[in-house]
Specification:
The chain has helices at 12-25, 75-87, and strands at residues 4-8, 29-34, 37-41, 48-52, 68-71, 91-98, 103-109, 115-121. The chain is α/β, with parallel strands linked by helices and 122 residues long. The strands form two sheets. It has a four-stranded mixed β-sheet, with helices on one face. The chain has a four-stranded mixed β-sheet with strand order 5-8-7-6, covered by helices on one side.
């Protein structure tokens, strides 16, 4: 159902360094890059996450209530990705831990304020 998701950035160079690390830990690579965007994908048939400067040339802003959830393979990977994101300049939006009996997750905001969750069902 989802083909791709786009998230705006005001500094594509900084965003690229951030997401190369974060998405790389999840097995994603750059599918392609243009002057105004970088697309990441785990497989040629999988949905993409595209980081781009806004087409209208206005500043990128994050959506209130919007979030991209990244699927991890273990609680350890959730912990690792959350710590990595913070070490790369992200802000903490919720430390790793259980939310309910089986859902283990953590939350952060990237360098442009976009919210991400990392989770695994145990």
């Amino acid at each position: 159902m989802i083909g791709y998701i786009t998230l705006g950035s005001n500094d594509l160079t900084a965003a690229a360094a951030f997401f190369d690390e974060i998405f790389g830990k999840l097995g994603a690579k750059r599918a392609y890059s243009l002057d105004n965007l970088i697309a990441y994908q785990t497989d040629p048939k999988a949905p993409m996450i595209v980081i781009n400067t806004p087409f209208n040339k206005e500043p990128a802003t994050h959506g209130n209530g919007s979030m991209v959830a990244l699927a991890a393979t273990s609680a350890e990977q959730v912990d690792e990705l959350h710590a990595l994101a913070l070490s790369l300049g992200a802000t903490d939006e919720g430390a790793p831990g259980y939310r309910g009996e089986r859902f283990y997750g953590a939350y952060f905001r990237d360098l442009d304020g976009n919210k991400f969750g990392v989770f695994v069902y145990m």
